[in-house]
Design goal:
The protein has 164 residues and is of the alpha+beta class. It is 28% helix and 35% strand. Bound molecules: coenzyme A.
């Protein structure tokens, strides 16, 4: 489904063959493996993933492409801020609109829950993710120095104001 952000360029609809679903406990090994592959030393550990999935309050979403898991996202309220905590697409499945499908899902859920805005952090060096978020109209709020450890990369805090 097409999504029209409050500002920024209109986003074309996600490609066909993309299906979003809630992750299950059986998917967590796959997520942990992908985390390690994609984020290296800053990856969430298998125990953190399992703990948050089982006992946290976030929504864990998976994206299938042509019937196989190809990406995942974690989002939900942190205090009163609706927050994208994680988003990753398997390297071999990139540039097919999977992250766009996740962003549509994330923002639809934010609106459904009546969140006034949506928040996320992104490494200031992450050109692909910055381009994605800016295309959705996310605006720079502030830099959190050395937010990503152990690399010590700065994070840019971004916000999209939502209207119902
Ligand atoms: C960032 C990431 C999630 C994008 O996933 P994706 O499924 O390839 O993205 P999409 O195909 O949905 O792209 C949507 C838009 O994002 C932007 N974009 C995505 N990848 C990009 C890249 N490598 N360079 C520039 N812009 C990019 C483009 O605006 C793109 O639209 P277009 O294809 O019409 O030009 C993916 O590269 C990834 O998992 N990276 C590693 C993990 C990561 O950085 N996660 C974000 C943490 S904050």
């Amino acid at each position: 489904m097409a999504s029209l952000p409050e500002s920024g360029s209109p986003i074309p609809p996600a490609a066909s063959g993309i299906v979003l679903r809630d992750l299950t406990e059986a998917d967590l090994d796959w997520v942990a493996e992908r985390e390690r592959e994609i984020f290296g030393r800053s990856a969430w550990s298998p125990s953190l993933i399992r703990d948050d999935f089982l006992h946290g309050f976030s929504r864990w979403r998976g994206v299938e492409f042509d019937g196989a898991l190809a990406g995942y996202a974690v989002y939900g309220f942190e205090g009163d801020a609706f927050h994208l905590m994680n988003l990753a697409v398997a390297p071999e499945a990139r540039r097919r609109g999977i992250a766009r499908a996740v962003m549509d899902d994330f923002l639809a859920e934010a609106r459904r829950l009546g969140a006034p805005d949506a928040w996320l952090e992104v490494a200031t060096t992450n050109a692909a993710a910055l381009a994605l978020y800016r295309a959705y109209g996310f605006e720079d709020v502030r830099v959190r120095p050395r937010y990503y450890q152990p690399e010590g990369l700065d994070a840019l805090v971004m916000r999209l104001r939502l209207t119902s």
